[in-house]
Amino acid sequence: MNLRHLARIATALICMLVISKDLIADHPTLSLGQGHASALTTVSAVPLSADQSALGFQQQMIFNDELTDTELEFFSDLDEDVHSVESVFSTSLGGVFGISNDLTIGFQLPYVTRNNIREAHHEDDDSDEEHHNAAIAHEEKVEQLGDSSGIGDTTVYGQYRFWKNANEDVHAALLFGIKTPTGRTDVRSAEGERFEAELQPGSGSWDVFAGLAASKSLERLGFDTNILYTFANDGSQNTNLGDVFNYNFALSLRARGKDAEPHGHLDEKSHEHSDTVWDLIFEINGDWRERVEKPEGTDNNTGGNIIYLSAATRVAWGRGWSAYISAGVPVLKELNGVQSEPKTRVLFGINKGF
């Protein structure tokens, strides 16, 4: 296996789609990337070869700027459905398989944890007046709900390269897939009540997605971009967690010391005598989401648009192994209503190609 194949497998492993439909500020973001020395979150249009496959592990962590108790008390007085989440961790196991030289399929199974969930106390329409008065009397304006953890929804996806210009090293691909309702939807809070649908590890819905990806290589540089739209359906608690639109751009640089070969063009001879391969990656990742629709109406404190600016590095070495780490910060946050705003996002993982 030469280093070009290794790099493709390494980045294809990151083709782990995390489509967890909940509040934009506290959910694992999209990560679906394939190709030669390409990005981590941005999708490359270059698929695996027919004889390649890979398995891998990925950890994603989002740290939020929490709402204070004073803020939550204020919204409790207004009877607003507002909550705060300290952080979100998503641990994923997945695999990718080259069906042909133009078609790659994959799967991902995440385990999702939302840490330290707090909520402004509010009354449902069917709450009785006695309960409401008792809560106010005891000043229970901020509810400490604890953590929500469990298996998330399994995603199965595909990438089909429908156009290739070998001379210019330009590629275009169709992206498609489905998120299945395998995740937990019955997790309860520290107070014994079932978490709302947007705070559960799973959505309870079957959601399909489709998009396009394009890639271009130039010497040691790689340019990748993609768009992806997810059509959400009603799921747990008769709740629709909203459609999602992802848009990504990435620049990748292959750096391998003095004998670094042009980006994506390492031959078998150079592999036999080369050092470990390093890639440097810079990305812009956008995520737009609709508001959550509940049986009682639209939740105006959900959805919005956020853009991350990320820097990452990936290392690939012998026998199909690779590892990566990425750190990102939001450069645009246009969230609807009142939500916990993200401060930082960290991704890291390790993969094994076959």
What does it look like?
This protein is mainly β and 354 residues long. The protein has one domain (3-353): Beta Barrel (Porin). It contains four helices and 15 strands. It has helices at 3-13, 69-77, 129-137, 268-273, and strands at 53-65, 83-98, 103-120, 142-151, 154-165, 170-180, 207-218, 221-231, 244-255, 277-289, 292-294, 297-299, 304-317, 321-335, 341-353. The protein has a twelve-stranded antiparallel barrel. A two-stranded antiparallel ribbon has the order 11-12.
Write a short abstract of this structure.
The protein is mainly beta and 354 residues long. It has helices at residues 3-13, 69-77, 129-137, 268-273, and strands spanning 53-65, 83-98, 103-120, 142-151, 154-165, 170-180, 207-218, 221-231, 244-255, 277-289, 292-294, 297-299, 304-317, 321-335, 341-353. The strands form two sheets. The chain has a twelve-stranded antiparallel barrel with strand order 1-2-3-5-6-7-8-9-10-13-14-15. A two-stranded antiparallel ribbon has the order 11-12.
Number of domains: 1
Helix content bin? under 10%
Query: What is Rg?
Result: 22 Å
Overall geometry comes to elongated
- Runs in which pLDDT lies below 50 for 5 or more consecutive residues are 6-24, 29-37, 125-138, 261-273
Instruction: Assign the CATH architecture.
Output: Beta Barrel
Secondary structure class reads mainly beta
Order of helices and strands: HEHEEHEEEEEEHEEEEEE
The main β sheet shows up as: 12 strands, antiparallel, barrel
The CATH class assignment is: Mainly Beta
Tell me the total number of β-strands.
15
In what order do the strands lie side by side in the largest sheet? 1-2-3-5-6-7-8-9-10-13-14-15
Measure the end-to-end span. 9 Å
What percent of residues are in strands? Answer: over 45%
What is the CATH superfamily?
Answer: monomeric porin ompg
Mean pLDDT: 83
Note the total helix count.
Answer: 4
CATH fold call? Porin
